[in-house]
Specification:
9-stranded mixed sheet, globular, alpha/beta, 39% helix
């Protein structure tokens, strides 16, 4: 008698570092997902110093016979490393990524499956991300500062991502055939408490260079927790600084360096020109964040011995 094919269509990869107080809630929320019995979940513990392993073990016990969860320990620090480890041990033809502080909507998984079936030309997809603030949303957190918090709403229609946007790692799914050739760059991305990023921009940029498409799926919804320690002007300016560092580290080779230097110069001129009319505190914060991003890039390029850029 021929045995049924038990290979899951979708693997959900959740990477965690020192978030024992959050990851258990995320794992338990998976029970509600439509079609979760046909998926596998890989929890990659990226060398957490807290009791993450114990919390995950308890969640696995609570969800046995309901959600298929595998715990994997990755001692090498780095979010990109952890994600690549999750890919290595996965079995699905679609790899979906969810953050350890995110709660997916009931139809999240079924919408991922349906989107890849309906849009065979899509190499990767992403969805809407609603913020779950630990405290009230600050007045200074205006639209222009939402992206670093992963707040995404591109409307109610399926569409390709615009040129300067791409799926966010806390809510995205990628075909395995893409990840057989490309992986997250391990010189970029979070490492422990570092705010280094850029790994998603690099990966989705490579996918686009191959002529492949990225689709926004509005019903692929999650709620993403934003803790109080990130809700300050000081934190968001630091986040922009490290975005600048990431931008400087992202490109390799002389052409990429020349493009970045030209872009930094143009951005500085634009900010200087538009700053003349900036009066509102929130707009000044947006300006300061953009300047911090430039400073991060400039200081990183100088430390790497690149051609000097006048500030």
């Amino acid at each position: 008698m021929k045995r049924p094919n038990l290979k899951p269509q979708v693997t959900i990869v959740i990477c965690t570092y020192s978030r024992a107080n959050m990851v258990g809630q995320t794992l338990l929320s998976l029970k509600q997902l439509t079609g979760i019995d046909q998926a596998e979940v890989i929890l990659v513990d990226n060398n957490s110093p807290d009791n993450t392993a114990e919390v995950v073990s308890q969640a696995i016990e609570q969800l046995k016979n309901t959600v298929n969860i595998r715990y994997v320990f990755e001692p090498r620090q780095g979010l990109s490393v952890a994600r690549n480890t999750g890919i290595d041990v996965s079995n699905g033809s679609i790899i979906a990524f969810l953050d350890d502080d995110a709660i997916p909507a009931i139809g999240w998984l079924s919408n991922i499956r349906e989107a890849f079936d309906k849009y065979p030309e899509a190499a990767a997809i992403g969805g809407s991300i609603k913020p779950d603030f630990e405290i009230s949303r600050p007045e200074w957190l205006v639209k222009g500062l939402e992206l670093p918090y992963g707040i995404i709403d591109l409307g109610k229609q399926v569409r390709q991502y615009p040129r300067r946007l791409h799926p966010f790692g806390c809510n995205c799914a990628i075909r395995r055939k893409i990840l057989n050739e490309l992986r997250f760059p391990e010189w970029l991305g979070r490492k422990g408490q570092s705010l280094l990023s850029g790994e998603e921009t690099w990966l989705f940029g490579q996918i686009r260079k191959r002529g492949q498409k990225l689709y926004y799926i509005p019903d692929m919804k999650i709620s993403h927790f934003i803790p109080v320690n990130r809700l300050s002007p000081e934190w968001i300016k630091k986040r922009y600084y490290y975005q600048g560092v990431s931008n400087a580290l992202e490109g390799k080779g002389l052409p990429a360096l020349i493009r970045l230097i030209a872009e930094l110069a143009l951005r500085r001129v634009y900010i200087a020109f538009t700053s003349l009319s900036v009066k509102a505190p929130s707009k000044r914060l947006v300006r300061d964040c953009r300047l911090e991003s430039i400073r991060g890039s400039v200081e990183t390029l100088r430390s790497r011995g690149a051609a000097p850029i006048h500030e």
